[in-house]
């Protein structure tokens, strides 16, 4: 039986001179999932991505993608991944279509014209395909950047803070694009500082703080591990809710539903970070 694990990281370490950026990072990511790595600036998120994409060598531990070791089998790793960094990497002199065609030529993709048209349609850039990228908005450039990374249909797409600098409308459009990628079977490894982004997109979240994973799990699990959650009780009318405050049992008034009052992911993140600071 084939494993559905596509990324396996064990006790990863990285130093920049005397500064240890990654201290002991271990993670397992499953095929077709959206994984979000959360952390403050300087937490080590980009360092993890650089190691996994073979741009940087670790100083300890191991990592593999699709069973290929990122240190000893970099060529095979690079064949099954793609990376969109924090800064958009598109040629502004070329049109959107020309940017995609260039990438397709470099990857020697067959049926290139049809392939480019399909990706232009997928990214919502069909109407702007023959315009120079210099005329594109920030959101359009980011969509083109990600689409260029998708040429060749990589098994794993790394998105390093992909919505930084985008307005809310373009950020939501980007979220929809990422969701669609996962539906099509691409594994997405996302780094972000936006907690609502991770909560909306991710199947699994890990929080990186000072070089270590301090918590991981589904968004719901991370919320459920927090103490003092309480419940929310809903009534059919304001009158019933007012009476129930004092006379719930005596008057035979029962709620029509009870929900767990879970904290936001932001509450979880800030609480865990504060706890680590107190322990240090």
Secondary-structure map with pairings?
Blueprint: E1 5-16, E2 19-30, E3 34-38, H1 45-52, E4 60-65, E5 68-69, H2 74-79, E6 81-84, H3 96-106, H4 112-123, H5 138-150, E7 156-160, H6 168-183, E8 187-192, H7 195-201, E9 204-209, E10 212-217, H8 219-224, E11 231-234, H9 238-247, E12 257-260, H10 265-279
Parallel strand pairs: 3-8, 3-9, 6-7, 7-8
Antiparallel strand pairs: 1-2, 1-4, 4-5, 9-10, 11-12
Short description:
The protein has 280 residues and is of the alpha/beta class.
Describe the structure.
The chain has 280 residues and is α/β, with parallel strands linked by helices. The protein folds into two domains: 5-227 and 264-279, Rossmann fold, CATH 3.40.50.300; 232-260, no CATH class. Helix content is 37%, strand content 26%. It is built from ten helices and twelve strands. It has helices at residues 45-52, 74-79, 96-106, 112-123, 138-150, 168-183, 195-201, 219-224, 238-247, 265-279, and strands at 5-16, 19-30, 34-38, 60-65, 68-69, 81-84, 156-160, 187-192, 204-209, 212-217, 231-234, 257-260. Strands 6-7-8-3-9-10 form a six-stranded mixed β-sheet, sandwiched between helices. The radius of gyration is 23 Å and the shape is globular. The two termini are 44 Å apart.
